[in-house]
Structure formats: structure tokens, C-alpha cells
Amino acid sequence: MVVDDQDLVRDGIATILDGQPDIEVVAQAVDGADAIRQSTAILDLAVVLMDVRMPVMDGIEATRQLAGGPKVLILTTFDLDEYVYDALRAGASGFLLKRSSRDELINAVRVIAAGDALLAPPVTRRLIDRFAETRVDPDVAGQLDVLTAREREVLILVAKGNSNAEIAAELHLTEHTVKTHVSRMLAKTGLRDRVQAVILAYDAGLVTAGRR
């Protein structure tokens, strides 16, 4: 589903995606409320491309209401849009810049549909530096109790924006082993992807903004 209040943007994205053999645009929505209404009738909806600033209901609230359903990929004009962090906290699996290329758009949908998060390490660092809150939530911190010491180490490095390859080098592990630790960490904490893991780490006080 493509959600954007600008007809040309929405139609353009839908046309590009519908031209791919493995992607089908099953719906278009003009705002968040429209997206919520339509999503209830689509059983196999996998990914929602969600604009942020829209009338009636914005993308953040719509993302929050879709939590637990289809994966949400936020569409934004600027990579440091003040709303992006709120959208990620609401449950989005990543974001895509509206100035992205055709190939980047197609790849983003495929990545999100496959269950991965779309948030490049450099972007993670900028977002966290700008938006991360340093207040610790004791209830959230308790979620980390289920993790092993190694899994906590991996979570810290994920939260700092490191890729699996960088984490492997830091901890002297293979990249495959790091992927296994990340998967187990997500499963134990009930998180959907790396983006949500980053938010958990900051909310729990495991890492704080500006700390490397």
C-alpha cells in the first residue's frame, strides 16, 4: 500500500512498484485514516509505504495503529525530519527518502517485505544523536534481563549504528555468529527488527545519546 496525500507522488511510486514481477500494489491511500480503513480489508498486505505529514491522520499515528500488522516503511523528505524518530518509535521498520532513486525504492520494499529493517548505520547514528532520549524507563530496562552478556554486547553495538560486519570485527566473531546473536536477541525481547532494538537500547539506558 502506498500512502501519500500528493496524487502525483503516490501514483508515481505505485507505477514503479507495480512494474516489478515480485511486487503488487494492492491499494493506495490519501492519509493515515484511509490507510487504516483499507488495511483491514487486505489480508495479504505486507508493506505500507507511509508519508509522514498528511491531513486527517498523519503517518505516525497510522503507523502506531498498524503495529503488529504490515511492516511500515516511512517516506520522508529529509533524513533528519523531526518526525522520523517518532515514527520509528511507533513501530516503523525504517524509512526511505523521497529523493531516493527508482532502484532504491524497489530495494527498500523488498528488504522490508523480507523482514529486515531499512536503516543504514550512518543514518542510525545521526538519528540517535539528534533524537535519542536519555531518560531510562525501568520497565523497559527489565526486558534486557533475558539477554546473555554477549547478546547485550551485540545490542549495544547495534544501537550505536554498527553493521553486522563491524560488530564481527569489534567482537572478533564471524558475521554469521553475529547474525545469530542478533536474531536471538530480537526473539528474546519480542522485537521485530534492528530499528526497534536501537530504540529499546536507548529507552533502557543501555546506551545514551552521544556515547560511542
Structural features, described:
The chain is an alpha/beta fold and 212 residues long. The chain has helices at 7-18, 32-39, 59-65, 84-90, 102-113, 121-131, 138-141, 149-159, 164-171, 175-189, 194-203; strands at residues 2-3, 28-29, 47-51, 71-76, 94-97. Strands 2-1-3-4-5 form a 5-stranded parallel sheet, with helices on both faces. Strand 4 (71-76), helix 4 (84-90) and strand 5 (94-97) form a beta-alpha-beta unit. Helix 8 (149-159) crosses helix 10 (175-189), helix 8 (149-159) packs across helix 11 and helix 9 (164-171) packs across helix 10 (175-189). The protein is globular and about 50 Å long. Residues 140-205 form the HTH luxR-type domain. This is Response regulator transcription factor. One of its GO terms (biological process) is phosphorelay signal transduction system.
From the helix content, strand content and strand pairing, which structural class follows?
alpha/beta
Summed over residues and divided by their number, the pLDDT gives a mean of 84
The CATH architecture of the largest domain would be: 3-Layer(aba) Sandwich
Q: Would you tell me which CATH topology of the largest domain applies?
A: Rossmann fold
Low-confidence parts lasting 5 or more residues at pLDDT below 50?
none
Supply Rg: 17 Å
The main β sheet shows up as: 5 strands, parallel
Strand order, sheet with most strands? 2-1-3-4-5
